[in-house]
UniProtKB/TrEMBL annotation:
Lineage: Eukaryota, Fungi, Dikarya, Basidiomycota, Agaricomycotina
Signal peptide start and end residues: 1-18
Entry-linked SUPFAM superfamilies: RNI-like
Protein name as catalogued: Uncharacterized protein
The entry's keywords: Signal
The organism of origin for this protein: Dichomitus squalens
Length: 222
């Protein structure tokens, strides 16, 4: 997103974050009004974006981060329409459970979506923090099922509680390939009802699958 956002003169570096974790990140935000001609140029360029990969970007050695207020501002300017109306492949990292960045990026045009959350994968999270993250991912899945309904490939790089998944994923009737961590047997039965699901990649299943049968190819990975 940075090449696009740098088309806006109001998008500037305002400082650094993460000193307390020992890994700093340059913080950028929209600071001030966006000029109408710059916004029109931004929208023209955004029309041509078909692939965006920011997954894992925020934990790179020279990472940059975008202030949450910037995504709120962009969402208001877009008036509820997708920021990237023709994006087909999206890989995105959710930085915090309060992040709203993905809301402006979800589009019916998306065919392949990867969602990452490194924080949720950490073993040292408190119970409250983990519940907050679980709620965030559940809400994100609900938004995906409502706004990106033509997804055929979905990857969740986060440690979810099994019961959090299927309430939303089952609505993705075009889903063909689903990669996720652990699921329970109830989730597995629900996922097997997806009419087009052909491949399911898991790390583990909670419960017995002795009496379970499906036409979906299930593969376990570490």
């Amino acid at each position: 997103m940075f090449p696009l956002l740098h088309l806006l003169s109001a998008f500037v570096r305002v400082g650094t974050i993460g000193e307390e974790q020992g890994s700093t990140s340059d913080l950028f935000m929209i600071d001030g009004a966006i000029l109408p001609n710059e916004w029109q140029r931004f929208l023209i360029h955004a029309e041509f974006v078909q692939s965006l990969n920011d997954a894992g970007f925020y934990w790179s050695p020279e990472s940059r981060s975008i202030a949450p207020s910037t995504w709120v501002y962009l969402g208001v300017l877009c008036g509820g329409t997708p920021l990237l109306p023709h994006v087909r492949r999206l890989s995105w990292t959710i930085e915090s459970p309060q992040s709203t960045s993905i809301l402006s990026l979800l589009s019916p045009s998306i065919e392949s979506l990867t969602i990452s959350s490194s924080s949720l994968r950490r073993s040292g999270l408190s119970d409250d923090s983990r519940r907050e993250w679980q709620s965030c991912i559940r809400s994100t899945l609900h938004l995906i099922s409502s706004n990106a309904i033509h997804i055929s490939q979905l990857t969740l790089n986060s440690n979810m509680e099994p019961s959090s998944l299927c309430l939303s994923v089952w609505k993705l009737q075009s889903l063909r390939v689903f990669t996720v961590g652990k699921v329970d047997i109830a989730d597995l039965h629900a996922l097997s009802q997806l009419p087009n699901l052909a491949e399911l990649y898991l790390t583990s299943i909670q419960g017995s699958i002795q009496d379970f049968s499906t036409q979906t190819a299930i593969e376990f990975s570490s």
